[in-house]
Amino acid sequence: MSFVPGSDTISQILSILFYVVFIVFLFYGQRIQMYVMIREVEGSLYKLKYIKEEGRKIAIETIKEIGKPQTDPSARVDRYLEYFTIQPQSMDPAGIVYKLDHILDVRDSRLKDEVKIMAPASDEVQVNNLENTLEAAMALNFIYKVIRHYYIQGKKTLSLYVIMQLQMILPLVMKEAEAYASALKAFAYGQPIGDGAAPLVAARLMHGCEVRKVPKDCVVATVPIEGRTAFIIKAEGPGGNVGKPGDAVKAVIEENKGKIASVIMIDAGLKLEGETVGEVAEGIGAAIGGPGVDQYKIEDALVKYHIPIYAVIVKEDIGDAVSPMRKEIADSADKAIERVKNVILERTKEGDKVIIAGVGNTIGIGQ
Amino acid sequence: MSENSSPATTKISTYLMMIVLIVLALSIVALMLSVNAFIVGNEVVAGYLLIIGFIAMTLSVYVLLQSRKRVASMKIEAPKVMTTVECRKCGFKSIRDFQRGDFVFKELEACQKCDDKMMITAIYKEVKEKEKTYPF
Fold first, then answer.
1. Model ipTM?
2. What is the DSSP string of B63-84?
3. Cβ neighbour number for residue A103 with a 10 Å cutoff
């Protein structure tokens, strides 16, 4: 019996070889498949390690350059990268938003204080930028450690399903890691990022008008638009800062005793594959991401005074949101302004008061 | 981000390289045997060996090229960021590379044409889309 015609030695060898390969694949096919997947994960893990180390290096170099520390900040940076935040207990969910708010405030002030110690010569804008740089490095460190955890666990247990799950989500994880890698330099240099689309719109609307500070880390300007009085809110720039738009919107509503005709929120929204970057869309509801604290506060204030809320979003993907702002997004600011003006004209009357909040990281965008 | 890649990332697996080289060597042997079989007059065996040799050679070259491509994609490219500077009075506009300290609405030196202060109006990166096009 032979695989190839003829009965010479070569034909016999090839025939045996074929059967050996067939039997090996029959019994060890899954294991071979797993080793192929492990190698693929290993390759990505090398890349993640490289990105993570680059992140740490950039953070340390930027701190040394801007902050002029007396001692080497490396040890403190390493400690910073390992910081964690524990979510409040949710067994009894009543009041959890304010508990979470408190924990986030403590985290923010603690991290800012750490940056000030690491970089004593930096001003407020630079402290914010350094904090953002370190947070991007922290995110990369976390991604690397989680992927490494599952990789080692998969290798230890030789579980196809652990490795398979890891291999399946890897393209998305890598995309996010590459976005953070791109964000590192943007934060270190203070370049506007894609998430700054809405603050850019707000800044263009308020530019040239008197600006005052509102809690927390936000600014508001009173601007006449189409015969209405608009209160334009954004995080205080040009340092890397998202502020607390929830507190700011609530404060402005309370200042006006609830006499606000409508609230228009502008934000960067995640686009679906196939949609164009910088596309502007309109909808209803509080356009704001994050842990949900600010959204809760805004909705709470709106319900109290029965104020309608409209949303305008600038579409982009996660990579665009944290990397330097793309031209398409910068150009879409004018389109978003037009949409906001349309909403004002269609949904409010002359003499009304409206709030326009540009939500997002205002790094590299003044007012 | 640095455009260089670390030694860890540039390393192609030695196992992979070993397997590829073995397959490549075997494919060459198969091709040589094929020539030998053809000379002896065993044309059927020569044909089979020729096919096996070519398939093995194509596969090994493909795997080698793929792994080189993966190494190339590990480099992280730093995007080029541009700053648009405009004079609000005369409309004079210039685009230059981003410099540390630039931010949108930052006032700069006087305009070359009208002596009014110039201002940064936009900071952005230009991305050349390499995405595939889909019919939908």
1. 0.84
2. HHHHHHHHHHTTPPPPPPEEEE
3. 16
* B103 part of contact set with chain A, CB < 8 Å: yes
- Judge contact between A286 and A365, C-beta under 8 A: no
Strand order in the sheet with B107-110: B93-97, B81-87, B117-125, B107-110
Paired tokens of A1: 């019996």
Cβ within 8 Å, pair A53-B74: no
Spatial separation of the C-alpha atoms in residues A211 and A367, rounded to whole Å = 8
Higher-pLDDT residue of A30, A246: A246
A365–chain B Cβ distance below 8 A for any pair? yes
- Residue in B48, B125, B136 nearest the CB of A324: B125
pLDDT over threshold 70, residue A154? yes
What pLDDT, on a 0 to 100 scale, did the predictor assign at position B10? 46
Give yes or no for A182 touching B (CB within 8 A).
yes
Question: What is the secondary structure of A196-263 as a DSSP string?
Answer: GHHHHHHHHHHTTS-EEEETTTEEEEEEEETTEEEEEEEE--SSS----HHHHHHHHHHHTTT--SEE
pLDDT in tens, A202-259: 999 999 899 999 988 899 999 999 899 999 999 998 988 899 999 999 999 999 999 9
Q: What is the pLDDT of residue A220?
A: 95
Is the C-alpha dihedral spanning A40, A41, A42, A44 positive or negative?
A: positive
How buried is A288 (Cβ within 10 angstroms: 0-12 exposed, 13-18 middle, 19+ buried)? Answer: buried
pTM for the model:
0.81
Instruction: Provide the residue ranges of all domains of chain B, joining segments of one domain with +.
Output: 7-72, 81-125
Q: What is the pLDDT of residue B19?
A: 80
Res. A326: pLDDT tops 90: yes
Domains defined along chain A, listed by start: 28-189 (no CATH), 194-358 (3.40.50)
Q: Which helix (H) or strand (E) holds B96?
A: strand B93-97
What the block records as the tokens of A193 is 């990022």
Contacts of B125 in chain A (CB under 8 A): 323-327
In this complex, is the C-beta atom of A7 within 8 Å of any C-beta atom belonging to chain B?
Answer: no
Comparing CB atoms, the residue among B1, B98, B124 nearest residue A326 is B124
Q: What is the DSSP letter of B56?
A: H
Tell me which chain B residues have a C-beta less than 8 angstroms from the C-beta of A324.
79, 81, 123-125
Interface touch A192/B33, C-beta < 8 Å:
no
Residue type, A103: I
Determine contact: A189 vs chain B, CB below 8 A: yes
Cβ atoms of A139 and A321 within 8 Å: the answer is: no
**Chain A neighbors of B50, CB-CB under 8 A:** none
